[in-house]
Structures are given as structure tokens and as C-alpha cells.
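Figure 2 data, in text form.
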Amino acid sequence: MARYTGAVCRLCRRYGDKLYLKGERCMGPKCAFERRPSPPGQAKRFGMRRRRVSDRALQLQHKQRARASYGILEKQFRRYYKDAMRRAGVTGDTLVRLLEGRLDNVVYRLGFADSRAQARQIVRHGHIALNGRLTDIPSCATKVGDEITWTDKGKRTELVKIMQETMQGKEIPDWLGVDAATMSGRVIAQPDVAQVGAKFDPAVIVEFYSR
């Protein structure tokens, strides 16, 4: 499956906000956005006037932030938008719930990974089971009642021990339940949009695709 393989810190600088794409690194002094918050590319010339950002450019920026946050390319992101359009309710909120319901995101939200990129890798390597069955598809949609556990292969890795030690300091959203002792989690409700802490405005993304 296609995915972005470039420098992720460059994305934060490009879109003008910390997207926390590298987990713990984003929290410390090594964060590239903290050291150099200016956009990548040619340095600004002295005295150059700042260009006004158009409404269309702002909409594009929010859409790109959402894509970068969840590690999704354009074609797949557009499919999520079309799916949200077909469903009842507010399209923007539905879009966020679909993105939050991805298996790799749920693994990240449960505290089993420090970033969505790491969660994607954990899933792809066959370390996660969904309802008792090994599932190596990061985009697999979860639903209320689903149980997420580590496979026998995953339990034998050093990573599961590290994650178990660091889970105490992580904030788990209310729509998920987790048992740190057994390293298992469950989807107990629909994703709460208010708890997502999104770095983008879903309503603006809907405006972008509606034009």
C-alpha cells in the first residue's frame, strides 16, 4: 500500500503546526518545528512581505494537515470523505470518526505505540489481533465492541514491554478501554470528536471538497 516516505518533520514546518508525527521526539528539544518553525525551502529574503493566504489555500492546508496526521494519501483520503458524505449526520464529524476508527489509529490511541507511524508498523508486522484474529491491515475499520490485543508474536517482542512501562503517562480517550496488565483494549463507544484534539478543522475540509 502506498504511503508517504519522506521527512515527516518537514510536514509540520510546511503546514505551520506541530502534528506530533514522531511521538516522543516531538515533545523534546530535538523537535524540528521548535528549532526552525519557518516553512521549508528557500529562506525568506530580508524585508520580503508576507503573502496573504487565500480561502482556498487555507482549506487545502487543513486537508493536508489531516492527511499528514493520519498518514493517508490523497486517493484514500478522498474515499473517506465520500463515505462520510453518504452517511447520516454532520459530514465533518463523520469524517473524523472514520479516521479515528482505523486500526492503526486505535492502536496509537490505546497507548500501544508512540505515534501513528509506529502503530502502522506494529500492525503491518503482525503484532496486533482484532477480536482474536491477526489483522495486518492498518486501515481496517473498527467498531464498538471490538477487542484489540497483541498476538503471541507481538507479546514476545521487547516493544510490548516498553509500551507497558510507558502507558501510565499516556492519556487514553473515553471511547476506548484499556487493560495495561494484559495489554488489551476495547472500543467501547463511537470516537468522541471533542477528544480528538485535531490539528485541522473538518468543516473547512468539507468546504474544500464541496467546491
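Caption note: The longest helix spans residues 55-70.
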